[in-house]
Design brief:
Elements lengths: L30 H7 L20 H12 L6 H12 L3 H57 L1
Helix pairs in contact: 2-3, 2-4, 3-4
Length: 148
């Protein structure tokens, strides 16, 4: 015998269908009756794929860490955060986050270059200042010793 609801083969002496749980009707159900009861169109199951993650952009992360360690740039810390957030995002938002991280890293390099130029100019100015001060002090002492 077959279930009139789902068409599964019934187990003898069971009051319910083991497949769908509907009550078993007394009497025989023919194959033709099952064919009429079961829809002819069988829909294929819908496969839902788990969204892919973008993955970690190691190069961007290394660039950001170098910005913090070597350049001492405050712009590199948000770049690290954006790179890590991009790693756990789906591909489309990850592209935007990596783009922001790249811009922050570029600003970080510019910031580091400006700091290096300022440090160089400061040291040059200090050297000239030291030379000028030493020269002036030498002349003052020279005049003081000539007076004595």
């Amino acid at each position: 015998m077959y279930c009139s609801k789902c068409g599964a083969e019934l187990i003898e002496d069971k009051p319910f269908c083991a497949n769908c749980g509907s009550a078993v009707e007394k009497g025989e159900v023919t194959v033709e009756a099952v064919a009429l009861a079961v829809p002819s169109e069988v829909k294929e199951p819908v496969i839902v794929e788990k969204p892919k993650k973008a993955g970690l952009d190691v190069g961007m992360l290394v660039w950001s860490i170098i910005g913090v360690v070597i350049l001492s740039s405050p712009f590199s810390i948000p770049a690290i955060v954006m790179t890590v957030l991009a790693a756990v995002s789906s591909p489309e938002p990850a592209k935007k986050k990596l783009s922001i991280a790249k811009k922050l890293n570029i600003v970080s390099v510019i910031y580091g270059a400006i700091n290096a130029v300022i440090a160089l100019l400061t040291s040059i100015c200090l050297m000239f200042f030291q030379v000028i001060v030493e020269t002036v002090i030498d002349k003052i002492f020279e005049q003081i010793f000539q007076m004595i």
